[in-house]
Design brief:
Gyrase A, domain 2, 3 domains, five-stranded mixed β-barrel, single chain, alpha+beta, OB fold (Dihydrolipoamide Acetyltransferase, E2P), 610 residues, globular, eight-stranded mixed β-sheet, BirA Bifunctional Protein, domain 2
Length: 610
């Protein structure tokens, strides 16, 4: 096919922008052919661009040359159309299209490029083979759903930029090629050609650079930053991702919270959601006790410790270990279970609980004269704690009890964590099977929460020593420092660290930072790092702390996750233009790929054959 040139033809409107108000106007539109319908003397083309679809009419009697070209046109051909907008006949109006009241009578059609038959049509709403979509991402990106996601991402990022700029933050870029620092995952390394045997690291976050910007007096910094982590992937992880990174001097925790709530309000407004602020706050310890997890899904009823409802004789006869929590979980359920289904359910729950915990059947207790009173007390306690009038039949009530002989020496948190895991599993099961907790798309469906006062250290079983739970630049509570807990009881030290959580998803983490050099040295020492090792790894930063460092703090939130939630997507890959697979492969460009021997030689790298 001989293709036309664009020449002096100038697009006047986007396809999806045309409305009845343009009736009678002469327009030029350009885009891809979404569908073609040949009715002999009339050929209809649905022309698609980023703004939407408009119907094009080619009449053989009125424009024979354009009609002849249209006979050869197929889906995904790129065309330019000049013609007049006209109102459709009443019977031909398509109420399902924003442009459904009008069509364009063609004066001139130019075929700008042809197209092979694509492996799938952008007109399809759902395509099951994700690998095929990623291989032909340039076709997949033409799909309206993907374009809506990309537009939403742009609007969210723009709203955040505008809000932070209005709050006095400066957008400053930090380096991609830096040195390796501990951030909780493996670094991607970049070999240096001019420094044989040495490597840069791609940043897992701009952590130390943004702190140095505060030392440099820039007061308020933000960046929509690209970050890189070499870690095992899942639906909400990518090896390269984007975070909203910010830092400020002289803040209280509440200062950071108000800024984040402000830009999240602006971002969610772009999706038509009005948020209510301030967001509620709970401590890490309370989160574990009430939800069994440090990123609670607040749409679900919380855990209830019903230990106080049991009398000593009841604990003994039911073979429950006294002195340990007994945790009840209320999960909305829209269907009753048959006896067979219930037996299978109980077996499944008990298998998941492990040897130290048991499923206590409250329904069975209620049918027993001996335990009917206990069942009623449990129901009342759970209803009161979960702010329910009473426990209804549609609530599946699961009680987790420690078996006689269960380990009492451990922190009780292990029971709450096990119950919290079961709470989420049950909610997922009944949501999928019975339709509970459907997403409604209103502000009430987005339950935000601040979790504060995280443990400063966590015990590493493999190395048998304490390690940082957040990152080593987080400030501990001053009270814990003054009390000497850093040496006497590291597990009790609290960090001035906080997470922002939405519907059980951690959106971001932050902290008030260490701004005194002697405290930073003390933290490195507590982590088992010698003075020489600290100087080797962080010498430049420790030196910077000696030159008048102001108190400062900040946070980083995942932009990809925010957009994924707002788009109602199940994977980050739906809101990133060019994502990797779960094996960190870019199927479109076939990356990673081998380096040539010449490239390796220039980098002083020798390939070792295994």
């Amino acid at each position: 096919m001989e293709l036309d040139l664009l020449g002096n033809l100038q697009r006047t409107q986007m396809c999806g922008e045309l409305r009845l108000s343009a009736d009678g106007e002469q327009v030029v539109v350009m885009g891809w052919v979404n569908r073609r319908r040949d009715h002999g003397n009339l050929i209809f083309l649905d022309l698609r661009d980023r703004a939407g679809i408009v119907q094009i009419v080619l009449d053989k009697e009125l424009c024979p040359e354009a009609h002849a070209k249209a006979e050869a046109v197929r889906p995904e051909y790129v065309v330019a159309v000049q013609g007049k907008v006209r109102r459709r006949d009443a019977a031909a109006i398509n109420p399902n299209m924003p442009t459904g009241e009008i069509e364009i009578d063609v004066d001139e059609l130019r075929v700008l490029n042809d197209a092979k038959t694509p492996p799938f049509s952008p007109a399809e709403e759902a395509i099951g083979n994700e690998e095929l979509r990623l291989k032909y991402r340039y076709v997949d990106l033409r799909r309206p759903a993907m374009q809506e996601n990309m537009i939403l991402r742009h609007k969210v990022a723009l709203a955040i930029r505008q809000y932070l700029s209005g709050e006095g933050f400066l957008e400053i870029e930090t380096p991609f090629m830096t040195r390796s620092t501990p951030e909780g995952a493996r670094d991607y390394l970049v070999p240096s050609r001019v420094h044989p045997g040495e490597f840069y690291a791609l940043p897992q976050s701009p952590q130390m650079f943004k702190q140095i910007l505060m030392i440099g007096g820039l007061d308020r910094y933000f960046q929509i930053a690209r970050c890189f982590r070499d870690e095992d992937l899942r639906a909400d992880r990518q090896p390269e991702f984007t975070q909203i990174d910010l830092e400020m001097t002289f803040p209280q925790q509440e200062t950071v919270f108000r800024v984040v709530e402000g830009f999240l309000t602006a971002a969610f407004r772009e999706a038509g959601i009005t948020l209510s602020t301030p967001f509620p706050q709970i401590t890490y310890d309370d989160a574990i006790r009430r939800f069994g997890i440090d990123k609670p899904d607040m749409r679900l009823p919380e855990l209830t410790d019903v230990r106080s409802e049991f009398e000593a004789a009841e604990l003994e006869s039911l073979k429950i270990e006294p002195g340990l929590p007994i945790v009840a979980i209320a999960i909305p359920n829209k269907q009753a279970m048959s006896n067979t289904q219930k037996k299978a359910f109980i077996k499944e729950v008990e298998t998941g609980l492990g040897p130290d915990l048991a499923y206590l059947d409250v329904e069975r207790l209620a049918s027993s004269a001996q335990y009917a009173g206990l069942s009623e007390r449990i129901d009342r306690a759970v209803a009161a704690n979960c702010k329910l009038e009473r426990i209804e039949p549609e609530h599946r009530l699961v009680v987790v009890s420690p078996r006689l002989g269960a380990n009492k020496s451990r922190d009780h948190a292990w029971i709450y964590k096990k119950a919290g895991q079961l709470r989420l599993e049950l909610a997922k099961r009944f949501r999928e099977e019975h339709g509970a907790f459907e997403k409604k798309g209103t502000a009430e469906d987005y339950k935000f929460l601040w979790v504060t006062d995280f443990p400063f250290f966590e015990w590493d079983e493999e190395s048998k020593k304490w390690t940082f739970a957040h990152h080593p630049f987080t400030s501990p509570h001053e009270d814990d420092l003054q009390a000497g807990r850093m040496e006497s009881n590291p597990g009790a030290v609290r960090a001035l660290a906080y997470d922002i959580v939405l519907n059980g998803i951690e959106l971001g983490s932050g902290s008030i930072r260490i701004h005194r050099q002697e405290v930073q040295q003390q933290i490195f020492h507590s982590l088992g790092m010698s003075e020489a090792e600290a100087k080797e790894r962080f010498g430049f930063f420790l030196e910077a702390l000696e030159y008048g460092t102001p108190p400062h703090g900040g946070i980083a939130l995942g932009l990809d996750r925010i957009v994924m939630i707002l788009a109602g997507a199940q994977s980050l890959r739906e809101v990133i233009a060019f994502p990797k697979t779960a094996k960190a492969v870019d199927l479109m460009v076939d990356a990673p790929s081998p380096a040539t021997e010449m490239q390796l030689k220039e980098l002083h790298i020798q390939r070792r054959r295994s």
